[in-house]
Amino acid sequence: MTDTPPLAEGYEISTDPDRIDAERVHRWLSTDAYWAIGRAREKQDGAIEGSLNFGVYETVSGEQVAYARVVTDRATFAWLCDVYVDPSVRGKGIGTALVGGVREHLRPYGIKRMLLATHDAHGVYEKLGFAPLERPDQWMALYF
Q1: Per DSSP, which regions of 1-144 are E strands?
Q2: How many helices and strands, by DSSP H and E, does the chain display?
Q3: Pairing outcome for strands 114-115 and 78-85
Q4: Cβ–Cβ < 8 Å for 15, 105
Q5: Which of 49, 75, 76, 85 pairs as cysteine with 95 (C-beta 3.0–4.6 A)?
Q6: Which is higher by pLDDT, 43 or 5?
């Protein structure tokens, strides 16, 4: 497994749900994330409530600068989603460090597979050990 990249100096990762800036996360995702454009605030709040959430924060100001959430039973399954880094701090490796931190946080649970879907960030995730599905013919989806 690849090493976890360090988080840039002056930033910290937290899973404390009380630190999540839900308004900011909703604004980021519903206006700037291709997979969540137009997502209603109530939907986003429900997603946050039902997920394991990760935030990256400036250590001095406490301002949230990145977000990721994981839908998981903490035993057999994890789906990484809604990974977002504020444009003002992109290029500092924050997203890569965040996803590496998520991976390491989940490691003790013994989860054998974490899934994600991406349109344009394959390279970011490949650096952390993600790969295309070995047997995509075994997977199905139900679309509503």
Answers
A1: 11-14, 52-58, 64-72, 78-85, 114-115
A2: 4, 5
A3: parallel
A4: yes
A5: 85
A6: 43
- Contact in structure between 66 and 85 (CB atoms under 8 Å): yes
Separation CA 69–CA 134 (nearest Å): 24
Residues of 54-74 as b/e, b for ≥16 C-beta within 10 angstroms? bbbbeeeeeebbbbbbbebee
The residue assigned the tokens 């910290």 is 12
pLDDT digits (tens, 9 = 90+) for 49-93: 999 999 999 999 999 999 999 999 999 999 999 999 999 999 999
pLDDT of 14: 97
The Cα 79–Cα 41 span in angstroms is 21
Residue 117 zone, left/alpha/beta (φ > 0; ψ -120 to 50; rest): beta
Question: Which tens digits make up the pLDDT trace of 87-120?
Answer: 999 999 999 999 999 999 999 999 999 999 999 9
What crossing angle do the helices spanning 41-49 and 22-32 adopt, rounded to 10°?
A: 120
